[in-house]
Amino acid sequence: MGASLLRLFFHDCFVQGCDGSILLDDTASFTGEKTAGPNVNSVRGFEVIDQIKANVELLCPGVVSCADIVALAARDGTFLLGGPIWAVPLGRRDSTTASLNQANSDLPAPTSSLATLISAFGNKGLSPRDMTALSGAHTIGFSQCQNFRDHIYNDTNIDPAFATLRQGNCPAAQGSGDSNLAPLDVQTQLVFDNAYYGNLLVRRGLLHSDQELFNGGSQDSLVQQYSSSPPLFAADFVTAMIKMGRISPLTGGAGQIRANCRVVNSR
């Protein structure tokens, strides 16, 4: 679940800031972000957040926000899979709103070009270096066939043997095997390390957007540096995660501390 919790934090922070808005369920009178294209049948870990929240509420009721729990869970999942540890700035409060439209527009797609990725992260105050470091989160976790089908069948910047390997579990026909999973990191899919960047150097990025980071563009040299220096990647990843965690937080009297992460407090 570590990769999913890390992604949950990313998908929360890029929509209205790190405010727990992604956790809100749809109701008859409220539309949340869970049915947005980048999230539906894809983002997961909600039950883990629920369990953590329930445990925290027993000891410390009404104090710790769901937004802070998501930030901490992303850090802990990273660490437990072999990645770095860092101090997470806390004090975020939970939103009373969500934005389906912003989730659909602001979260970068797996088909994104390098220019699109740089722009999407830049819009959130994150530099190209931050973007390339944060993309290293794809050293863990899996992606669905529908997200990488075009890359393995139609792109030319891919190792042919790797394309053939992935085609074995991802049929060319749209609608066939769409949800079949493949590891984002072909080498060490359950370990948070720098192998993702080594994959890119030999054209074995799973997503089109992954391989865009090493494809004759502005991030090529940084990808090479991260591949050869685990400490450099770890340090830049931590810096970028802390920076991402500071996107438009609700503080002071803004927002609330939800009692149940899935619903806005009734009073």
TrEMBL record:
It is found in: Secreted. Its EC number is 1.11.1.7. The record marks R7 as: Transition state stabilizer. InterPro entries: Haem_peroxidase, Haem_peroxidase_sf, Peroxidase_pln, Peroxidases_AS, Peroxidases_heam-ligand_BS, Secretory_peroxidase. Residues 1-265 form the Plant heme peroxidase family profile domain. Ca(2+) 1 binds at D12, V15, G17, D19, S21, E33. The keyword tRNA-binding does not apply. The active site is at H11. The keyword Oxidoreductase applies. One of its GO terms (biological process) is hydrogen peroxide catabolic process. It catalyses: 2 a phenolic donor + H2O2 = 2 a phenolic radical donor + 2 H2O. Ca(2+) 2 binds at T139, D185, T188, D193. Binds 1 heme b (iron(II)-protoporphyrin IX) group per subunit. Keywords: Calcium, Disulfide bond, Glycoprotein, Heme, Hydrogen peroxide, Iron, Metal-binding, Oxidoreductase, Peroxidase, Secreted. GO terms for cellular component: extracellular region. Belongs to the peroxidase family. Ascorbate peroxidase subfamily. This is peroxidase. It comes from Dichanthelium oligosanthes.
